[in-house]
Amino acid sequence: MQGLASSEQEMRLRRLFADLLIKKGYEKEVYLLDLSAFFKSHGVYTLSEVQDLWRGHLSKAEVCRHYFSLYVHIPFCRKRCSFCRHYEWTCSSENQLRLYLDSLVFEIRAFKEIFSGVMFKSLYVGGGTANILSPEQIDRLLSEIDLNFRFDDHAEKTFECNPNESSMEKLSVFAGHGINRVSFGVQSYSQDVLGCTHRAHQSEEMVASAIRDAQRFPAFHKINADLLIGLHNDSPKTVCDSFLKLAQLGTGSISLYALKPPLHYIKKYYRGRQDLYDEALSEKLRDFERLVAPITEEFDYVFTPLKEIRANFDAWMFTLRKNYHTGRIYKYVTAEFPIDCLGLGTGAVSTITDHAFYKNQSFTPSAQGGTFEQNGRYRGCLKYGPKEQRVLFILGEIATWNRISKTQYRGMFGSDITADFTVELERLSALGVVSLTDAFVIFERKKPEERFFYALFFLDHKMIFDAMEKLKTKV
Ligand SMILES: C[S@@+](CC[C@H](N)C(=O)[O-])C[C@H]1O[C@@H](n2cnc3c(N)ncnc32)[C@H](O)[C@@H]1O
Ligand code: SF4
Q: Of 51, 128, 141, 183, which has the fewest Cβ atoms less than 10 A away?
């Protein structure tokens, strides 16, 4: 009886918190929300403080078994696509790119000494639109990276490309610097779909020639193209037609992203109802899987069946069997071992395992170009304690899947999730929401909103009260 009463109180507290989030305008997007903004310990780090964080981390004996990845962010696009969540700034002048590159070079050099003993396992230059840079600028950036950091012989080195900005000259600069993976944002081949997204300028021929050009370079072991499903006006058939065109080109891998629509998109096309979008998406995915099956068979693409992958997955990968590798490690992939990521450039997120993650905002663009504070200010989510780190990881997992891998958790934090969260897991088990297997903590609720709500049980009272306090002052 006592237990029941206390679990009812616990429910009530989370309900109050969830309601407050919705009241403050997070609406149906709540389940995708990154709660880090509401945790305490925010601050502004100077460059030397960030350098000290890394120095301290790298001096520990156990980091020798960590994987290190380098992420370089180019936060500019020519134009904003209406569906995009990655967009940061419209490039206003060549001067802006030049100044931004100066700031990147400054940052690269600032971390050279600290990372001199590290062999990076991966490089990812992404955006925004990373290949918006000119061939000379790309050469300058990659030369600085080559000169100042060391990479494992088998490191995966990716340059993210918009087909619209691609050229043989840029591709040959990539190849000359050991880039071995290029990833093109295609999204769709359908002009009806592209027309509604501000990408009408992207033609079929443009995509085909960007991919064919890339295929001429043996250096690019992996050529990927991104497609989206869930865009306004698309259908399983249009997505499948786009897939077929990429398959006919022999594209090494095709990543299908389920659109995570911005709120304005939901308002415009789904009467503001996220649940309507979710339903439409599930249906599209199911039909797409059925339609795409014969194409994957004909062109020999390997992929995981839909029912076995994450709900709200990041990308559903289809890989040509002859290119199939499992050992893929880059910024977005967490594996069964700790990954430390050094993120350079404004907007890049860095992760220092079990210690800190922070978002770099050292460059401020302006109409004239932009400024980089040479004393390096890194604003963002910083210095979370061990508990906050663990909760943020759990929330991130639950937002995108219905389970948390115990091994992955142990790899990230060096402790057991069942020991760290004994009370919380008992409470959730008693509510029938969670079950435990040897390998996973499984959330039995299917709806992302429900998963989000019960995930709030991993926050202790202090975290919830702090977050509510912050939310209350938000207008
Ligand atoms: C960082 S973007 C860079 C792509 C590149 N700028 C381009 O458009 O060609 C990487 C990928 O994220 C995916 N993406 C963009 N907006 C998305 C959203 N709202 N939900 C899910 N995926 C999205 C797109 O497939 C895109 O190719
Ligand atoms: S999809 Fe690519 S080009 Fe379009 S806004 Fe997003 S990052 Fe920029």
A: 51
